[in-house]
């Protein structure tokens, strides 16, 4: 089965997710800086989520670029990932509108954790259908430090939100920073 429809569908869903997130930022009715100041938490949560969605889009692109085939498991694993990504606008809006309160911050972490697990499942499904452990993708991913540390940091951030939500937010920013630079391992395979 070809991968073209999977890529096109995923790109479309991700574009809609970003559009929905930006539409959650309501235009202030006042014209002073104080009106904009009230939007700072919403804007910050949007920026963080925009970066996360961009990271997923970028890594999804790289993952599919080195993939030669997909099957039913890959299609379902991809839908699983898109499901969790589609919750980003809700989690982002809830966290931002409530000024990073504990429960919305923890819920944001649950969505991030679930998306990272879904991406791992998608990776494994793509590796399986494209040659298994001996595939070029499996070799490119190697030990995948970032892929292993991210869920651990999300899992720590979720309960920490009830102690101090700023620690959780710092962990979310840290994970985004870890992933911000595109995965060079896959780019090396692509260029080889």
UniProtKB/TrEMBL annotation:
<comment type="similarity">
    <text>Belongs to the TMEM175 family.</text>
</comment>
<keyword id="KW-0406">Ion transport</keyword>
<keyword id="KW-0813">Transport</keyword>
<dbReference type="Pfam" id="PF06736">
    <property type="entry name" value="TMEM175"/>
</dbReference>
<dbReference type="GO" id="GO:0005267">
    <property type="term" value="F:potassium channel activity"/>
</dbReference>
<keyword id="KW-0631">Potassium channel</keyword>
<feature type="transmembrane region" description="Helical">
    <location>
        <begin position="75"/>
        <end position="94"/>
    </location>
</feature>
<keyword id="KW-0407">Ion channel</keyword>
<keyword id="KW-0812">Transmembrane</keyword>
<feature type="transmembrane region" description="Helical">
    <location>
        <begin position="35"/>
        <end position="55"/>
    </location>
</feature>
<keyword id="KW-0472">Membrane</keyword>
<dbReference type="InterPro" id="IPR010617">
    <property type="entry name" value="TMEM175-like"/>
</dbReference>
<keyword id="KW-0630">Potassium</keyword>
<feature type="transmembrane region" description="Helical">
    <location>
        <begin position="6"/>
        <end position="23"/>
    </location>
</feature>
<dbReference type="GO" id="GO:0016020">
    <property type="term" value="C:membrane"/>
</dbReference>
<keyword id="KW-0633">Potassium transport</keyword>
<keyword id="KW-1133">Transmembrane helix</keyword>
<feature type="transmembrane region" description="Helical">
    <location>
        <begin position="106"/>
        <end position="127"/>
    </location>
</feature>
<dbReference type="GO" id="GO:0015252">
    <property type="term" value="F:proton channel activity"/>
</dbReference>
<protein>
    <recommendedName>
        <fullName>DUF1211 domain-containing protein</fullName>
    </recommendedName>
</protein>
